[in-house]
Design brief:
By secondary structure, this protein is mostly helical. It has one domain. The protein is built from four helices and no strands. Helix 2 runs antiparallel to helix 3 and helix 3 runs antiparallel to helix 4. The model has no long low-confidence stretch (mean pLDDT 87). Its main location: membrane. Keywords: Membrane, Transmembrane, Transmembrane helix. It is a multi-pass membrane protein. It comes from Lysinibacillus odysseyi 34hs-1 = NBRC 100172.
C-alpha cells in the first residue's frame, strides 16, 4: 500500500479516534498536495457538525428563552427534532468519511 494513500485514508478514518488532530497534523507534515487535499476535506467534514451543533444549540436556547414562553411542549418538540436531526447529520457525515477513506484505499 502506498504511504500517501494510507495517510489520506487515515484522515477520514480519524473521525473515530481523533477528528481534529490527525487531519491538522497530516496537513502540516505532508508535502504531497493530494494528501493535503484529503486532510483538508476530512477536517472540514469533522468541523461541520460541531459548528452546526453550536449554532442550532444557540438558536434553540434563544427560542426557548425568548420565543416560546408558556409553551413548554413546543420547546420540547424543538429539542427532540434538534437531537434527531443532529444525530442523523452526524451519522451521515461519519458514513461519508468511511466511504471516502475506502475510496482512497482502492
Amino acid at each position: 500500500m502506498d504511504t500517501n494513500k494510507g495517510l489520506s485514508a487515515l484522515n477520514y478514518f480519524s473521525v473515530f479516534f481523533a477528528p481534529f488532530i490527525v487531519p491538522i497534523i497530516v496537513y502540516f507534515v505532508s508535502s504531497d498536495p493530494e494528501v493535503k487535499r484529503h486532510a483538508m476535506r476530512a477536517l472540514l467534514s469533522h468541523i461541520i457538525p460541531i459548528i452546526l451543533g453550536i449554532v442550532l444549540f444557540i438558536l434553540l436556547f434563544a427560542a426557548g428563552l425568548f420565543g416560546a414562553q408558556g409553551s413548554e411542549d413546543t420547546v420540547f418538540i424543538m429539542w427532540v427534532v434538534f437531537v434527531l436531526g443532529y444525530g442523523i447529520l452526524y451519522l451521515a457525515i461519519t458514513i461519508w468519511n468511511v466511504v471516502q477513506g475506502i475510496k482512497v484505499l482502492r
